[in-house]
Amino acid sequence: MSFLLETIRLGLKNLRLHLLRSVLTSLGIILGVGAVIVMVSIGEGNKQAALRDIEALGATNIIVRSSRPPEAASMGSQERSFVARYGITRLDLRRLEFNMTDAAHVVPLKSVGGEISYRSQRLASQVFGITPELLKAANLRIDPRGRYITEEDLIKRAPVAVIGSEIAQKFFRLRDPLGATIRIDQQVFRVVGVLRPIGLAGGAGSALVGRDWNKDVHIPLTTAEIQFGDLVVRRQTGSISGEEVQLSEIYLTASSTDTVLNTADRVRRLLEIGHPEFNDLQVIVPWELLEQLKKTQLVWNIVLISIAAISLLVGGIGIMNIMLASVTERTREIGIRRALGATRRHIVAQFLVETGSLTAVGGVLGVVLGVGISIGVGRALPWLLGLPLLRSYFETTVTVETQVTTWSIVVSFLVATMVGLIFGIYPAVVASRQDPIVALRHD
Questions:
Q1: Is residue 279 part of a domain?
Q2: Overall pTM > 0.85
Q3: Most buried of 107, 243, 295, 437, CB within 10 angstroms?
Q4: 36 and 171 in one domain?
Q5: How many helices and strands, by DSSP H and E, does the chain display?
């Protein structure tokens, strides 16, 4: 035990005698460990943010969406007057409701209108005819001062609307939107509720499914069918075209995440009955997106860690280079120690203690650096992008979420230590094989 302690003391003493060289030698390890931790924390933070966005859509939800087929677009360029009929039909809805009895919700949505206005303000927006079950199926929340669409609104075909939070901010900055009258195209509706802000606005979930509830308007489905119908006619110079879409989307909620993939397969098979080519529908399953995202993120983590690990390799080479130079410098010292009775094992131990100390200290400093950067980058980035010099070149709303993981700290530290020891073995062996007589003659 005393031999080990004495060896450690001598090794640390030699490192202190050349402090600047020791710091520069361990710099590669410090940067390598820090880079691994930062890379993993950024990747993990972005993954968690994306997972939250997708889960906000409802991990058990299945979204069926009408999609304009390619042949409908080509038809418009060949004919001066045509009507394209595609997408989800009411027969599809009845078929799903009849066969998917184990689904918690089957909610139809009908896209109507293209412009909403309040007084002199106008805004292009998505307006959907919906049923009250959408509130639970899509995990929506209503401002407590108002209400959502009710069954009574459906029965009475009431001209009422629930608006998204962004629309409320643009139209009603200085007044209460509840009770106000807005126009959807030329139809008049009374605002009865406001959706609370949804966190996935502009996030990964929104990008993946093409939905931002904050910019939408909801009206009763029956009102949408009566006041707007299924046919939308567009008049252009020399031609008239139209689209007939009965339902734009259907939200289905599976009983659990264990059954959501099986339920999605059943939905696809049922829809194929009315759409054999399946070219005018999309079936979006957030749970599948979740699994794909996890796999993609795993690949990116491996790539990022591999890139950062190059710094560790360079740091190991630097340690070996410096230790080989140290062997040459301390040849006479090695000869004296051998002459006084030190064995080859003692010499190897002394040099390994020095390399181990370098990498251990470098690993600790690298962990501190990596954790510090990971915590600070999310806070510092908005401030940096807000600087006048950078504001015109970068989007100031860009955010980077980081999440430091324990495994990245442990793995990077252990790998750094192992790299240092492995690259330190060769110089230690070279030192131990010095001939004592030749070493004593060395100047």
A1: no
A2: no
A3: 107
A4: no
A5: 16, 14
- Other beta carbons within 10 Å of 153: 23
Non-local (6+) Cβ contacts of 283 within 8 A are: 62, 63, 64, 65, 264, 267, 268, 271
Torsion-angle region of 122 (φ positive above 0: left; ψ -120 to 50: alpha; else: beta): beta
Domain boundary among 217, 247, 277: 247
Structural domain total, the chain: 2
Q: Are residues 196 and 319 in the same domain?
A: no
Beta-strand pair 126-130/105-112: antiparallel
Instruction: For residues 153 and 409, give the distance between their C-alpha atoms in angstroms, rounded to a whole number.
Output: 57
Amino acid at 187: Q
Domain span holding position 334: 2-53+292-441
Task: Tell me how many degrees the CA angle 195-196-201 measures, rounded to the nearest 5.
Answer: 95
| pLDDT tens, per residue, the chain with 443 residues | 566 666 666 666 666 776 777 777 778 888 888 888 888 888 788 777 776 766 666 778 889 998 888 765 555 555 555 677 888 999 999 999 999 888 888 999 998 877 899 988 888 888 999 999 998 888 888 999 999 999 999 999 999 999 999 899 999 888 889 999 999 988 999 999 999 987 544 344 444 455 678 889 999 999 999 998 888 765 555 566 677 889 999 999 888 878 888 899 999 999 999 888 888 898 888 777 777 777 777 787 777 777 777 777 777 787 777 777 777 766 777 777 777 777 777 777 777 777 777 788 888 888 899 888 888 876 776 676 666 666 666 555 556 677 888 888 888 888 888 887 787 787 777 777 777 666 666 55
Environment class of residue 232 by beta-carbon count within 10 Å: exposed (0-12), middle (13-18) or buried (19+)?
middle
Domain end marker among 247, 275, 303? 247
Position 318 in a domain: yes
Total number of residues shown for the chain? 443
Same domain, 38 and 127: no
Can you read off the two tokens belonging to residue 283? Answer: 């079936």
Asked whether residue 219 falls in the same domain as residue 307, the answer is no
DSSP 112: E
| Residue 355 resides in a domain | yes
Quickly tell me which residue has 């340690």 as its tokens.
319
Tokens describing residue 113:
């209108």
Q: In terms of domains, do 219 and 325 share one? A: no
First to last CA, the chain: 34
Residues 240, 126, single domain; the answer is: yes
Same domain, 242 and 304: no
Alpha carbon 119 to chain centroid, angstroms:
40
User: Do 30 and 136 belong to one domain?
Assistant: no
